[in-house]
Amino acid sequence: MTLIRRSSLVVHAAGVNIGGHGLAIAGPSGVGKSTAARLLGGHLLSDDIVAITNVRSHPELRGTTLGGCTDGDAPCPLRAILFPHKSDEFRIARLEPRAALCRFLREHSCYLFDTMGDTKALTMHVVGDLFDRVPAFELHFPLARLDVGAVLDTVLSATHC
Asked: Which of 23, 72, 84, 126 is the most buried (most CB within 10 A)?
């Protein structure tokens, strides 16, 4: 509750810092969050739970030690949220904010909204603000490789960095 009042979230996602650019890889267990994070390389913030702070001003991705591997915290601007899929071919496609929000809520509602009253409404506003400020992408990738250059080019062109 303290985090949400500070416009921050704890999210079931892997997170990487690649050259100062934060990528959160969100989704339920088994979809490839940790695999995608490892294939992307960079500094592994967490392979299971990340914190997203300052959602309403300048979203920042932070590592946690909650339930997974980490190279340690190395906060960085959150440039994108990726929804991974293990696939035969590499593909990355931008999601409309509303579609990304609906998907995120479906996959995270079991713990994001385990609160009552005003906190639940505030959580919904913060999550909505997140997808208004940070682009989201569907990421399909083969287990053997992930085109890191294409991911970064796509993400950075969408965020005008």
From this structure: 23
